[in-house]
Amino acid sequence: MSQIGTGASWRGGDIPTRVDVVVVGAGITGAAVAHHLAHWGVSVLVLEQASQPSAGATGRSGGMVRAYDPDPAIAELAQLSLAAYRDAGRWTSGRAPLHSVGAVTVADPAEEAALREAAERINGALRTSAHVVAGHAEMAGARLAGGVALVEPAAGWVAPTEVTADWLEQAVADGAVIGCGMRVQGVEERGGRPEVLTDRGVVQAGAVVSAVGPWAAHPVPGLRPASPVRSRSIQVSIVERRPPASPHSTFVDLRTGLYAKPVGLDRTLIGMPHLVWDAPFDSQPDPAHAQATVSALTAHFPWLATAPYVSTVRAADAYGTPKEVEPVSGLLEATDVPHVWSVRSWNGGGVKTAPAAGHRIAAAVVADVCSDIR
Ligand SMILES: Cc1cc2nc3c(=O)[nH]c(=O)nc-3n(C[C@H](O)[C@H](O)[C@H](O)COP(=O)(O)OP(=O)(O)OC[C@H]3O[C@@H](n4cnc5c(N)ncnc54)[C@H](O)[C@@H]3O)c2cc1C
Q1: CA distances for 72 relative to 67, 85, 123, 252, angstroms
Q2: Residues of the chain with CATH 3.30.9.10
Q3: pLDDT grade for 40, boundaries at 50, 70 and 90
Q4: pLDDT digits (tens, 9 = 90+) for 112-166
Q5: How far apart are the CA of 140 and the centre of ligand 1, in A?
Q6: Which fold does the domain 8-59+161-229+321-373 belong to in CATH?
Q7: For the chain, N or C: smaller number of CB within 10 Å?
Q8: Which residue minimizes the CA distance to atom 31 of ligand 1?
Q9: What's the gap in Å between 201 CA and the centre of ligand 1?
């Protein structure tokens, strides 16, 4: 067995050379998977190329979470995940990470019946008071501009870096090792199982989970998912919210893709789809898009027209339409190396699904690792 340096490990011990599962990427997805695996007694090594976790999309994310999504598969994960974000008992910090500022989802009036059904489903599952408002000019601080709104008072936002850190802390407490500053360069088959090649040495694994986010568009050898993934730019800006602007809930308009969320007491994060594909993850902010975002959202938040600008952040997420791969229900895709699984692309919604997705992915991977001894 070869030895491997400890690298800049994050609250971890020595880097093992043989583990049940290697998780590649310490974003919110990798952390969610690692925490469940470690909790179930699986030996886990998380390898992250950056010097600390949340270095990718997770560290730039707005973290808006709501139970509703037009895609039923995502809605199911989002609903379960919202329950987890509300449950203080699941977190090392002892407090639930959710900031329950409420969520308003605006849609075309033709969607009213579908939104009412969704509200009923959410309330049945979470015992909340989600409801639909039609014919209102404004709701929870946002103008609806002719749309109908699904209001979820129990939704809101989380800080994705805090969630990721909490899960990694739980994983380490359960025996996982986190190797930061360690880039995976490739994965090959050796004796029917994966061998992970890193810039610090080689690790033998029973299975590998690739949770590399936007980098899945240009994966290292052995981590290429079965269906194509592209990276798409996401750009958000922060502005000051001064009186008489009122506090508001999180906001998404499904007709346009415009969104906003409060950040602390006097700031608001705003965003609009930035349809730039395949740009490098660290591309410079696009000032014209930032200005267009302010103009477009003024229809919903008129005070934005004079709000002082604070900053703009640009990053990317992984976009694609994953194939259904049983028994893992579209959450994992096979690669060209046996027992190496690529997590589906989250299309800009990886935070609101992470708790439930992490649980399901971990369960599927445990089954895969155990297939060795059948
Ligand atoms: C500006 C912005 C706002 C967003 N807002 C929301 C929101 O409001 N709600 C929501 O639900 N979602 C939101 N998203 C989307 C969400 O943040 C992402 O879907 C989610 O963070 C993806 O997490 P991940 O762990 O899959 O990927 P990432 O966080 O990108 O993590 C992947 C990790 O893998 C590492 N890695 C890559 N290649 C290698 C390698 N070869 N070896 C080792 N490590 C490697 C990277 O360094 C990175 O740390 C937003 C995204 C952005 C960018």
Answers
A1: 11, 20, 16, 17
A2: 101-156+230-319
A3: very high
A4: 999 999 999 999 999 999 999 999 999 999 999 999 999 999 999 999 999 999 9
A5: 29
A6: FAD/NAD(P)-binding domain (3.50.50)
A7: C
A8: 27
A9: 25
